[in-house]
Amino acid sequence: MRLGRLLLAALLGLVLVGSLTTAVHADPRWVFYTKDKTRYESPWFKGAHRVMVPYGCTTAPYYSPDSRCRDQRGFHHGLDIAMRCGTPLYAPYRFKVVSNDSLGPAYGDNPLLLRNARLGWDLVIGHTRRVYVREGQVVRRGTMFARAGDSGAPDGCHLHFERRAVGGGLSTATWPRPLLALTPRERP
Ligand SMILES: [Zn+2]
């Protein structure tokens, strides 16, 4: 009986700590421009996180009006995923780190431009805080290569994932979600 109570107290404590941790990890600057509240897992990052700004026409105020969008909306060329600063990023594929010189300041101080010519993509990752790989390096599958941050991001810690054609610029950006392989987190 006493053991049962102890176990129950321990369990409640764990639940409490769990919810507190979640609250601490939320970033007060986050604004979500989607109704989707699903937390997604991806082989590219640790944990499960919400989409903040989807790819395509958006009401988010950071983008200038685009002819593809109605009501003066802007076009978001990537997919933003909210995750606390420091969240590790992993390489689900082998890729090469390409020069990021062509990327403007909106992507942060040290954004990544990754290339897998065989699979036919470039991937820009914006707002990284720590980057553990350098230009010219071929990164092996499974490598933890960077951490999420808020560099260049007034809207809090998140990452911007932008899929482009190999060697193509911003205008070649396409829906990045299949490359990110987002899957809803399994509920216990
Ligand atoms: Zn973005």
Automatic annotation (TrEMBL):
Residues in the signal sequence: 1-26
Annotated keywords: Signal
Superkingdom to which the source organism belongs: Bacteria
Record carries keyword Hydrolase: no
Pfam families xref list: Peptidase_M23
Domain named M23ase beta-sheet core: residues: 75-165
Keyword Signal: yes
InterPro entries to which the protein is assigned, alphabetical: Cell_wall_metabolism_enzyme (IPR050570), Dup_hybrid_motif (IPR011055), M23ase_b-sheet_dom (IPR016047)
Name of protein: M23ase beta-sheet core domain-containing protein
Naturally occurring in which organism (per UniProt): Nocardioides endophyticus
